Amino acid sequence: MKIAMLARNAQLYSHRRLVEAAETRGHQLDILNTLRCTVHIASHRPQVFYNGEPAIGYDAVIPRIGASITQYGLAILRQFEMRGCWPLNESVAIGRSRDKLRSMQILAKHGLGLPLTAFAHDPKQTSEIIKAVNGPPVVIKLLEGTQGIGVVLAETEASAKSVIEAFRGANVNILVQEFIKEAGGTDIRAFVIGGKVVAAMKRTGAPDDFRSNLHRGGSAQLIKITPEERSTAVRAAKRMGLNVCGVDMLRSNHGPVIMEVNSSPGLEGIEQATGKDVAGMVIDFIANNAKVGKTKTKGAG
Hints:
By secondary structure, the chain is α+β, with helices and mostly antiparallel strands. The chain is built from 9 helices and 16 strands. This is Probable alpha-L-glutamate ligase.
């Protein structure tokens, strides 16, 4: 099988592991720098070029699109889809998951556990949205943030108002969420492949940091999740339409609540914490499911 991976940094642990897992199983995996891909749009002849040459002959594509280039990356992925190339995660599903507000609305619609969340445009409504999430304290998040960047804990109403008004004054869109104190600075990352949780870890934030992201200095360890947590992760992946994702949850007094569904989850933390060959599981899923033209959305939004 010939697989393309849309990624900018070939040296990242996750990308090197996927190449290694593919080659071990006899597949060819080429890393295509997303920003060096171009699309030629013509009736009946959708084409993708890489460094000026046609990117053809691929059976499947693994999108590892950075958050900062989401729109461009999705345009490239859609072009592969229109050529009949099978995507590990479809463009529509990735776009859905990258929009934090939309993803929260979808998960809430289907009854999945979430922290109380509020969204408003007018800074004058600051007091209203703080009250709506039972704050303070409250967690304030940039809609476009990733890896813990743009996430602020405001412990008083005055500090919450100051942060919210500053963000809105700069015309930056934010979400305000309740602070789940009982989580104790830890969360759970459940790694889902093909509708099954294949690995799970508990992430603990660095000292004096309520965020548990490994990129922010947090640590990870193996954890046994509950049937309710497993079911929540699987249902979240299904509602987002993602074949592979990381579902981040907090343990609250009223059960698991979802913080985020990540369509390009890293492999280093989960593999090291669990000792599992998650990269190999991803490649095996592709080999067992990739078929030309099997994209549900056919690349159309």
